[in-house]
From TrEMBL:
Biased composition (Polar residues): 117-136, 418-435
Region (Disordered): 104-136, 418-438, 638-658
PANTHER family from the UniProt entry: OXYSTEROL-BINDING PROTEIN-RELATED, OXYSTEROL-BINDING PROTEIN-RELATED PROTEIN 11
Compartmental location: Golgi apparatus, trans-Golgi network membrane; Late endosome membrane
Function: Plays a role in regulating ADIPOQ and FABP4 levels in differentiating adipocytes and is also involved in regulation of adipocyte triglyceride storage. Weakly binds 25-hydroxycholesterol. Interacts with OSBPL9 to function as lipid transfer proteins.
Predominant subcellular localization, coarse grouping: Golgi
Pfam family name, one: Oxysterol_BP
Subunit structure comment from the entry: Heterodimer with OSBPL9.
Stored Gene3D superfamilies: 1.10.287.2720, 2.40.160.120, 6.10.140.1150, Pleckstrin-homology domain (PH domain)/Phosphotyrosine-binding domain (PTB) (2.30.29.30)
GO BP term, example: lipid transport
Keyword Membrane on entry: yes
Protein name per Swiss-Prot or TrEMBL: Oxysterol-binding protein
One CC-aspect GO term: cytosol
Highest classification ranks of the organism: Eukaryota, Metazoa, Chordata, Craniata, Vertebrata
Length: 699
């Protein structure tokens, strides 16, 4: 109560896409539980321009920056506000939270819950539901009656047993299912007519039902923590506390990579039960697995995203989603609809950047530092075209933390350029066929092997690490990418922050490089991908560098997908190569000697990657992890795909929450944190260095 004073002052308020941010004079009326604002301080004696009831509101500091916060009223109305600095934001947030708590509790005291509600809840979840069986003592009344009756003097509050928590979890699962059905029913309504999916009362019902379920989940979470603290130190060795299911031994929970199914979830599809019940990854074996390339088979999956399909049919859903977004909003935590997904994980998309292994291996065959830098630029610019699957912009799956992807390529040595006379555009049509089809009868010495591994090393922020190597040519590349997406009105921008390092160990050279930004344009019509931004490639040892500009199309005129760049020797500031063209069509390289070379990207041969069959993959490998989502999307069953996707995301959230409460750090499998980056645990440069040291000692 000491902090319940009225406060006032200027804050910036976000209005809409057109008007943007505007200064407004805000007043916190603690007595009335209101947040009011005026055009300026002089108009304070007039009627407020806007008023929010704070009882039941949620005050949330924003992740965008240290100045912004939101006030979400129980009515569904929202104020997005920005203070002048972090200190002022904290002052407003703390005072608003105190006022909100005070008035919310006052409403609760004046409106106690009715006993009949408890009995109706008990009757709905007491065992009449299909697939749910309870003993008479395990009903809702016996559980919730603690709060409705005064306990006799001297009697202790009974400790909640694990089976009580399971009963509550079952009841909440039913409520969550009913809430999802409610949301689905509302969203299936037409967007025009007497009763629409955008009806204000229905939108309010969606918001309040979701808030109610979130509140119940928070309460249940507190009960789990209480039970865990009571049981702490008293558990026998070899057992664990399962937060969402009965206690079981780890050895029983996970056997041969398959999770057991629980009777309480008997009414769910088996694939969903498997997705929800995979054990906490850090409790599994996190030892790196050596993948044998001989177990990998040439990939026969050819995913092209050239069909609008469900995107065209779900236009109203996209419109509704856009109505909820604000300009510049961070989309990292926004769950996007399933029908805009392409049928592969982001980790596999990074692997598809390596679809021209002949150009990758040819880098180290350059006879001079200048030639090697130019070859790297050629490879770099040809990688993005095959990384995109089709002309339609769809979004890859967001990898869950701990997800991995493995593959490899086999490249006949005869098809790798060895001298400056080899021309990228010189491939004849007969050479453009996938070379790996004829490899089965060749000996090991006839081809090079390029291995690839990627891992999602962090969830918030979303960071992926990937590594590729060709041991025969003593070259490898290590990179980490932090994807940050923002809503830009009629497009979505994705920043790929991070850095890559190419190591040519034969030449003792290292090349650092970055990645361009990506944009999904025209998201209301036919979405397409555009790259933009400036990237740099540098080799400190040789003094050569490259500057590449991916140009976004101007509003009027201009060409699509344009790219320009130059390679120069820094010590003499001499440009040795210039490049221009389109990153998905034709590139023109002009060298210092006046020669010109054209690279037709659509005519370049593509080497299919080799991947282990799904049945041989681990439970956290991308294709096995997302197989049910992919199959449902391929069959056109969007609802089923959404259900599988939601199960994976919910499991990830539960695991993340558990780690936060138990202060358990995440254990990566293949990548180690070094400074601000992530490095593969067994890079080729360490193995080569060890061999050289051993040879030196022998001599």
């Amino acid at each position: 109560s000491d902090h319940m004073e009225n406060i006032y002052g200027y804050l910036m308020k976000y209005t809409n896409l057109v008007t943007g941010w505007q200064y407004r004079f805000f007043v916190l009326n603690n007595d009335a539980g209101l947040l009011e604002y005026f055009v300026n301080e002089q108009s304070r004696h007039l009627k407020p321009r806007g008023t929010l009831q704070l009882a039941g509101a949620v005050i949330s500091p924003s992740d965008e920056d240290s100045h912004t916060f939101t006030v979400n009223a129980a009515s569904g109305e929202q104020y997005k506000l920005r203070a002048t600095d972090a200190k002022e934001r904290q002052h407003w947030v703390s005072r608003l939270q105190i006022c909100t708590q005070h008035h919310t509790e006052a409403i609760g005291k004046n409106n106690p819950p009715l006993k009949s509600r408890s009995f109706s809840l008990a009757s709905q979840g007491s065992g009449n539901s299909p697939g749910v069986q309870r003993r008479p003592s395990q009903n809702a009344v016996s559980f919730f009656s603690v709060g409705h009756h005064r306990l006799p003097t001297g009697k202790r509050v009974p400790i909640l047993q694990p089976d009580h928590l399971v009963d509550v979890r079952e009841m909440m699962s039913q409520a969550e299912g009913q809430q999802r059905d409610l949301i689905r029913s509302i969203e299936c309504l037409p967007v025009s007519g007497h009763l629409t999916s955008l009806d204000q009362d229905l939108l309010m019902l969606k918001a309040t039902s979701m808030a109610t379920m979130n509140c119940l989940n928070d309460c249940f979470h507190i009960l789990q923590l209480q039970h865990a603290s009571q049981q702490k130190g008293s558990l026998p060795a070899g057992t664990t506390i399962s937060w969402l299911e009965p206690k079981i031994s780890l050895s029983n929970h996970f056997k041969n990579g398959a999770a057991q199914n629980f009777p309480a979830e008997i009414n769910k599809p088996a694939s969903v039960r498997e997705e929800q019940s995979i054990a906490e990854p850090c409790q599994l074996t996190r030892e790196p697995e050596e993948i044998n390339p001989d177990e990998e088979l040439e990939d026969i999956c050819d995913v092209k995203e050239d069909d609008l399909g469900a995107v065209e049919e779900q236009r109203s859903v996209i419109l509704h989603l856009l109505s909820q977004l604000k300009l510049g909003m961070d989309l990292t935590r926004v769950v996007l609809p399933t029908f805009i997904l392409e049928k592969r994980s982001l980790l596999e998309m990074y692997a598809d950047f390596m679809s021209h292994p002949d150009l990758f291996i040819a880098i180290t065959n350059g006879t001079t530092p200048e030639e090697r830098m130019i070859r790297f630029v050629e490879y770099y610019l040809t990688s993005f075209h095959e990384g995109r699957k089709g002309a339609i912009a769809k979004k890859p799956y967001n990898p869950i933390i701990g997800e991995t992807f493995h593959c490899s390529w086999r490249m006949p040595k005869s098809e790798v350029a060895t001298d400056t006379g080899s021309n990228l555009s010189a491939h004849s049509p007969s050479e453009q066929a996938t070379p790996s089809k004829d490899l089965e009868g060749q000996t090991e010495l006839d081809y090079y092997t390029v291995k690839f591994v990627a891992e999602q090393v962090s969830h918030h922020p979303p960071v992926s690490g990937f590594y590729a190597e060709c041991a025969e040519r003593k070259m490898c590349v290590n990179a980490h990418v932090w994807t940050k997406s923002k809503f830009l009105g009629m497009s979505i921008g994705v920043t790929m922050a991070g850095e890559g390092l190419l190591s040519l160990l034969e030449h003792e050279e290292e090349y650092t490089f970055s990645l361009p930004c990506a944009y999904a344009r025209s998201i209301l019509t036919v979405p397409w991908v555009e790259l933009g931004g400036k990237v740099n490639i540098n080799c400190a040892k040789t003094g050569y560098s490259a500057s590449i500009n991916f140009h976004t199309k101007p509003f009027y005129g201009g060409r699509l997908h344009r790219v320009t760049g130059e390679v120069k020797q820094n010590m003499t500031n001499t440009v040795v190569c210039r490049v221009q063209g389109e990153w998905n069509s034709v590139l023109e390289f002009t060298y210092s000697n006046g020669e010109t070379k054209y690279v037709h990207l659509t005519k370049l041969s593509v080497t299919r990657k080799r991947v282990r069959p799904i049945e041989k993959q681990g439970p956290f490998e991308s294709r096995r992890l997302w197989q049910h989502v992919t199959e449902s999307l391929r069959d056109g069953d969007i609802d089923k795909a959404t259900e599988h996707k939601r199960a994976l995301e919910e499991r990830q959230r539960n695991e993340e929450r558990l780690r936060a409460e138990t202060e358990t750090p995440w254990c990566t499998k293949y990548f180690l944190k070094e400074g601000d980056g992530w490095v593969y645990h067994k890079p080729l440069w360490k193995a080569v260095s060890a061999v050289q040291t051993q040879q030196t000692d022998t001599n």
